[in-house]
Fold these 4 entries.
Entry 1:
Amino acid sequence: MSQALDTLRHEHDAILSTLKILRCMAERALQGNADAGDIAALLGFLQEFVDKCHHGKEEGLLFPALQRVGLAHQGELVGELIAEHEQGRALVGALRQASTPALDAEAFAAAAEAYAVFLERHIDKENDVLFPQGPSRRSARTSWRHCSRPSLTSSCRSSGKAGTKSCTTCCTAGRPTMPAEG
């Protein structure tokens, strides 16, 4: 299987682990035990890693590679996935709004669950519908070289935003870590 897809699937696993952390934070918020610093760090991770790093790879490398190899029939699915990335950004915005300047525990918990359910479905769609179609086509193999592991890693590191440097590290361990500040 393509190294590019292996990398993206590995990142999906890390993101799913992060959703467990988000749900735990939401439960703590409802119990009155939320830590504002932890919430801010997790929201930074969602914005920097999930959106800018991971979704950036899909939109900037994977989806164009699929189009180059003639998977035009996937255009509708790719368009749907890009629209879902936008929807995910809006849901992270709702999480941020519910947590700043003061935490609204109920709104945060509702937004956290909505985001987690949404992203789980989105990841399932990519893993189970889109990804199996890419590397199975022999003609796609040469084009997948554009989505090699170094390309994926450098696209993450090149964004220059706080926290993105940690995205490669968080995924190699198979579990999420909070992004480093600075």
Entry 2:
Amino acid sequence: MFAFVVDRHVLVCAPGSHNHSQRPRRMQNKGAKLTLLGAVLVSSLTIWAVHFQQDQERENMYKGVLRDDERRREKMRQREQELEESRKKRELYERVQAVERAAD
């Protein structure tokens, strides 16, 4: 069954009634009109909700990437700080204790 609007009237074509000499008859039943309207509204809302959910998921995934980048930067800062501390300790130990360098 196909339904379409012409001049603010909902028209219906039943399957198998594609006789080109006949005009589609008007949908007389208010219940049928309301059902069609409800189906269109529910479909539209469903499509909108799916797109909204996809946008939210995409945004959350992007925030995850940003968090991972920040974690990596923090880890690099910590490693650089530990390396600097290690160099200072080595320098201090070398001043206190004589260290022989290995011959190349």
Entry 3:
Amino acid sequence: MNSRFVRLLRDTSAVAAAILLGAVVCPGCGDPSVGSPATRLAGRITYNGRAVKNHVLIFTPEGENKEDWAYAITDGEGKFLVFASARAGDMMPGVYRIALRKDGLVAPDNGAMKDRRAAWRGGELPGRFYDADHSGIWTKLERSACWIRIDLRDESESGSAERETDLSRAGRGLPPRDTPGGVT
């Protein structure tokens, strides 16, 4: 064969292989505004410094599409991993309001929030935390995976939600680093 043709064929193959490798190695690269789904969300929730155990967290997106909700169930240490509803498929980036649910709670009549409290081992949570419109808990989910810490306080104290975008430590069972997040 002509050596020039062989060299061209080899160079073309190398370029094609590099493009293919880039597509395989960087599947999540690109513009985050295109609406690509977030990978995962996990965290820990406390009330006055104590773990909120065996609660369900409901994540409701801001805006029109309320059907793209997600949920998580806390363990004995208040840790949770969020799962998108079957209809949503994946959680999309955006702002999510968070409310809690506990087994045995009944939805308030006529949608009105009453001064009801749910008992949990070690104390009680104020009723406002069980209503997404009044809980004051929210997080902004970005395209990358993240860990959030939710620290609920009595009404006289302010609570906060901090976010960390590195789940690699949490995914291995390690606690997140103590860097502050941007969500309050």
Entry 4:
Amino acid sequence: MKRMKKFMFLVLMIQSVFVFAQTKTVVTMYGEKVTINPYVNNGLTANNGYIQLGGALTQPSVLTTTSAFTLALKGLQTGAAADNLVVTDANGVLKTITKETLSNGFAKGSLLSTNATIAITGGTNKLFDGDAIIDIAPGASNTTLTTNSAGKVVWSASLPWILDGNNNGAVRSIGTNDNFDLPIETNSIERMRITSGGKVGIGTAVPTNNLEINGANGTATGLKLPTGASAGKVLTSDIDGNAVWQSGAIQLQTILASDGGAKTYMGAATAWTLVDCFTSVVADDAKSIYGPAFGWNVGSQQYVVARDGKYRISLNVYFLQGGVTAGQNWRVAIILNNVNAHVTSLMAGMPFISVTTSSNTEATTSYMSGIATLKAGDVLNVKSSNFSNGSTGVSIFGGIGHTVLTIESL
């Protein structure tokens, strides 16, 4: 009984927090009289003998929760777009604001403190929808909003390259606005460069001409131009300097003069010897166009053919009067692919292109010219023989106006 009395007393004490003014006396089932307040306020309502939540607050009220004793509201209704938002002020007092107030706060930056950041974690739903606008502090002129290596949104002076083309609506430039080159790479390797001086290099980063194509070890240096009307055309320039295709081929001309003075070459009918006096190169187009492996080699005294075709070969030899038996059979010949070996037979089967003959009774000039079909890599040189007496040899006089060899492509 005492415990029941204490319990009833505790209940009445809790209720008395909200009771004031008039009081009434009631009798319990045990015959005890208890005085109670029949009225409630400050958020409570008396209804048919029940004290219920609901009603106006009559004084500031604080409901304190802890991590162990939390407050939950269940059964809340779904809100509508026009509903207000519940917020707390600096003192923790609950208040409502409209959604427009919240949007304006974001737009004006009033909801964020100085140097504040917003962390956005990726998901499947949209962060903003409709006509929402993100207002970011202005950057410097001509900068682009992008992300850095840490994933942060920053302003950058580096403009991005938009793949699949750009719709500019006006003329735009690509390049550098200061004194720097413009390199172009593929697969992380530089393929082409436009220097700050306007020179274009392909395969080289330091072009010295307006257009320069270069390749390692002489490979990949070709320049393919639109085809001509048919095969065998030559690219040349017209009267205005424009590149055009023309009929005909580039002529290769080699002119060789001999050393000045008298020279004697000891060679018999079965042992022709090399005439090695052509040391003065007047012109050699084959070497200048096709490289040092072709044309005339002064050291080996031989001509290497650069390309297939027909060639005109001319040889002028100035023979000296030898003072020996008249009527000796001197011969000077242009030999094909015998290189520097001695000819070991008579006329039959020898690789002659030409033969110049003369007696030795008096000084005389002998000249021959002919056309031969040659292949790239063929070798020509000049050899001599005294068919009558190999021990006396052949005497010639060298010099630009005396003994001359000319090789021309046709």
